[in-house]
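Support case: tryptophan complex. Customer-provided input:
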Amino acid sequence: MTKIENRLFSGVQPTGDLHLGNYLGAIRRFAPMQDKFECIFCVVDMHAITVWQEPEALRQKTREVAAAYIATGVDPERSIIFNQSQVMQHAELAWVFNCVARIGWMNRMTQFKDKAGKNRENASLGLYAYPSLMAADILVYRATHVPVGDDQKQHLELTRDIAQKFNNDFNSQIVAEGFEDGQFFPQTEPLISGPAMRIMSLRDGSKKMSKSDPSEMSCIALMDDADKIAQKFKKAKTDPEPLPSEADGLDGRPEARNLVEIYAALSGMTPQDVLQEFGGQGFGAFKPALAELAVSKLSPISSEISRMLADPAELDGILRKGGERAAAHAEETMKHVREIVGFVS
Ligand code: TRP
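Agent response - structure generated as follows:
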């Protein structure tokens, strides 16, 4: 079997509203990847149910994330777009990985500690095993690259550990299967393109923008209309000083920095360029310019998403077809895995 060189996998959870942070930090980077990689973009609905989801909302959000991929330029013919639960091989490989990974490895995962909170005994078993399913998402396609944000780095490292332990534990069977170098699963590389983009809350420049923030005003949803976007930027927390004309002048001003960085990311300028243009001006002038820019970039995307959601049959067809294509790749891996592990088939 030929070695896979350039296969990229990424997943987004269909929970809560997509927001500016998801868009700038993750989703808008996906379409350009299609020029360099064979891309598989997944909506990870099985990860979503590790915490309670209203079933109808889960279905709706799954479609919304898929529509966002397409609206930002992912081509469902060229790339594969699907929802995780349609390809049962993810769950099958996750079970094998549950038996490869050690409890001690899981106990080190910081996301579990954060999400489980104080009452860890009451968290679902799925939430605990979440990283094992994520490793299966990636390795069932033997993906070579995964774009990751800071918060997922530890899970990707665990994926590499699981791949290595599997390759070691089953070395002789892997070689017998025809993988002479013993590298059945690859050491997947994280892709951190450009400076790590962290969009912060509009109410508190030290907190990440999040859909679960209690203050709705802290977060620009992708589906917000023009008035809402303008209102949220207008109310965004700032300080009384005008904008500096050099990037250094943003030190110690987290809210000002965040707004300048959002402007820079949306316009494709550097923060220095933005300050060249707006340095010396107050937020009374900057905020409306920022709102106008955000609306001009986001509204074509949100109207395309709305159009697709109005006819879910077409979207569901795309996900089903994507699922079939994904399953063909995944089954190729699983045929070997079953043989390697010693299952009779
Ligand atoms: N855990 C990721 C997140 O919360 C989502 C995810 C699931 C994922 N499986 C993946 C991301 C595989 C990249 C690759 O953002």
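The pocket of tryptophan is lined by residues 9-11, 13, 44, 47, 134, 137-138, 146, 152 (CB under 6 Å).

Case will auto-close in a few days if no follow-up is received.
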